[in-house]
Design a protein that fits this description.
The protein is of the alpha/beta class and about 325 residues long. The protein has a single domain, classed as Ribokinase (UDP-N-acetylmuramoyl-L-alanine:D-glutamate ligase, 3-Layer(aba) Sandwich). The strands form 2 sheets. The chain has a 9-stranded mixed beta sheet, sandwiched between helices. Strands 3-2-6-7 form a 4-stranded mixed beta sheet. α2 packs parallel to α9 and α7 crosses α8. The longest helix is centred in the last third of the chain and has 18 residues. It starts with a helix and ends with a helix.
Amino acid sequence: MVLLLYFCRKSITMSLLTVGTVAFDDIETPFGRAEKVVGGACTYISWAASYFINNIRLTSIVGGDFPKDELDQLQSKGVNLDGLKVIQDGKTFFWAGKYHENMNIRDTITTDLNVLDDFDPELPDSYTDSEYVMLGNLTPDIQLRVIEQLTAPKLIVLDTMNFWMDIAMDRLKLVISKVDVLTINDEEARQLSGEYSLVNAAKKIFEMGPKYLVIKKGEHGAMLMSKDDIFYAPALPLAEVVDPTGAGDSFAGGFIGYLAKSGDTSFENMKRAVIYGSTMASFCVEEFSLGKMKNLSEYIINDRVQRFVNITKFDI
């Protein structure tokens, strides 16, 4: 596993475009409450990926109420904000949610789109040649708009959710036909494919265009699938899960950050990327918002990766 650990060191040889929300969250879990903390898919993706690669290009929109020091922290981690649109007289996207004792279940209390309602991403010229692309959960039309502006991406990863399957399935399938990797949870895989078996669901989804499928299973881990291979990574047992918000996006950031760092998109290397993605997700859930994500190091990350290796290693 020496090679696995080596690649955690940063690189600036590859470029990574991250697209999604930068937001405020109100979160209530059985372990407490956090009011108006920083969140959003693009935020978590960028922070997680920043531990692997310096050349990150963020595309999102915020209002004039978003704190400058949060943006300064992102820039200090190698995140380019030329693609961040700031509407000075507008308000940032806001989400409030409450988690149950079973934190796989949550209720959305409030969703205020605010400036996100008019988000029409126009990539800066310096972004259009991005090699690795992580499209966070947004409308299929916004995701298509981004793809159409790219010149020669090496790998596009798409995250989506059941809401878009309910109201914009045809547009979503058009986006899916243009990406390399789709990341969804198991229920979304079943809804998208019309198949209950995840193996059969994957076969249907591959017919839509992607080469790889990542099925996120929350506290039960993640499954990586191609037309010919399957890899399953368990979740790391944790003593305490404080806040699951952003875990899937942190997974995505670690996953694509590792791939962009290594420059290798083979199935074997994607297996390693799943472990790194799972590692970043495991940190995310241990504190509210970005509390844990902002205070990591190469040593801390590698130590946890080794814990994943240890719980999956066996002899025959």
